[in-house]
Write a structure and sequence with these properties.
Layout (H helix, E strand, L loop, with lengths): L1 H21 L15 E18 L7 E4 L1 E12 L4 E5 L2 E10 L16 E18 L6 E14 L20 E14 L4 E11 L18 E15 L1
Antiparallel strand pairs: 1-3, 1-10, 2-5, 3-4, 3-5, 4-6, 5-6, 6-7, 7-8, 8-9, 9-10
Length: 237
């Protein structure tokens, strides 16, 4: 009998939760939140950066060991109409990537094990300008897709460093340009709006600074090197 009562209570709880999600009788939180022309907030999140390489010759791929980074920043949201918003999300992004070279890149030259590895630490000041396309609000939920363009300043690029890979310095361009695509959901809580989202980021320009030696084993076979990344953000407004 006790088990039957527990099962009945569980079913009733699920029915109540399901009904609150889709019922028109559900209490609407922050009913006028989306009517504001301009609103502000902040975000925290995680990232995973990668590189896409194109090569001059068909040698072994350069392997990229990715690690989870993090980011934080501000959000500005301009309401265009009921379903479209323009968003500006400046932030600071921290990440580390390790490049692993195959020994075939060093044929005919002397090298150490340390020459096969390059650690690329990056601190980006990122400036995305995005269009957000939202569905009709369903009680306290509102899915959306987002896309746009962005630029970033890499504070750890080493672009102006006179030393190159022969001195252990891997160099990248300071400025990069991207397009971004993603999706998320607005959750209207009692006192604030919480928005988890995920975006893919794809560089448009070649980011590598080549060594002085055109036959450098680190940069000589690279036709282009472009950043790719995934951002997971949690926005509070």
């Amino acid at each position: 009998m006790k088990k039957l009562i527990i099962v009945l209570l569980t079913v009733c709880s699920f029915n109540t939760a399901f009904g609150q999600l889709f019922s028109k009788e559900k209490i609407i939180n922050l009913e006028n939140m989306d009517k504001k022309v301009l609103s502000w907030g902040y975000f925290l999140g995680f990232n995973s950066y990668d590189f896409k390489f194109e090569y001059e010759e068909d040698l072994r791929d350069i392997l990229v060991d990715r690690s989870a980074g993090f980011q934080l920043g501000l959000t500005g949201d301009l309401r265009i109409n009921e379903h479209i918003n323009l968003r500006f999300e400046p932030g600071v992004y921290f990440t580390t990537r390790n490049l692993r070279y195959d020994e075939s890149y060093f044929d005919g030259t002397d090298f150490n094990d340390s020459d096969l590895l390059r650690e690329v630490k990056s601190t980006y000041v990122h400036f995305p300008l995005l269009l957000k396309f939202s569905t009709k609000r369903i009680n306290n939920f509102r899915p959306f897709i987002v896309g746009g363009v962005s630029t970033s300043i890499n504070l750890s690029s080493n672009e102006k460093n006179p030393d190159d890979n022969n001195a252990g310095q891997f160099r990248m361009t300071t400025n990069s340009y991207y397009y971004e695509l993603g999706f998320g959901i607005d959750l209207y809580l009692l006192y604030f709006k919480f928005t988890p989202s995920i975006r893919g980021v794809f560089a448009l320009n070649d980011e590598i600074i080549r060594d002085r030696d055109p036959n450098s084993p680190w940069t000589g076979n690279i036709h282009s090197m472009k950043t790719r990344g995934i951002f997971i953000n949690f926005t509070f407004r």
